[in-house]
Amino acid sequence: MVAAAAFRLGIEDVIARIARGDRDALRAAYDAFAGRAMAVAARILRSSEEAEEVVQDTFVEIWRRAAEYRPERGSPAAWIAAMARSRAIDRLRQRARDENAMRTLASQPPREPQPPPSESTARQQERSRVRAALASLPAEQRRTVELAYFDGLTQSEIARATGEALGTVKTRIRLGIEKLADALLETPP
Amino acid sequence: MTCGEFKELAAALALDALDPDERAAARAHLAEPIRHEGCAEALARAEGAARPLAGAVTDMPPPARVWHGIEERVSARAPRRRWAAAAGWAVAAAASLLALFLAQRTASLRNALDAERGRAEIAQAQAGSSENRARQCAAQLEAARKTSGLAKDAVALLEQRGSRVVPFAPQGAFVGAASAVIGPGRRRAVLVSTALLPTAERDYQLWVIPPGPGAAPVAAGLVEAAGEVALGDFQAGALARGAAALAISVEPKGGSRTGAPTEVVLVASLSG
Question: What is the C-alpha end-to-end distance of chain A, expressed in Å?
Answer without folding.
Answer: 22
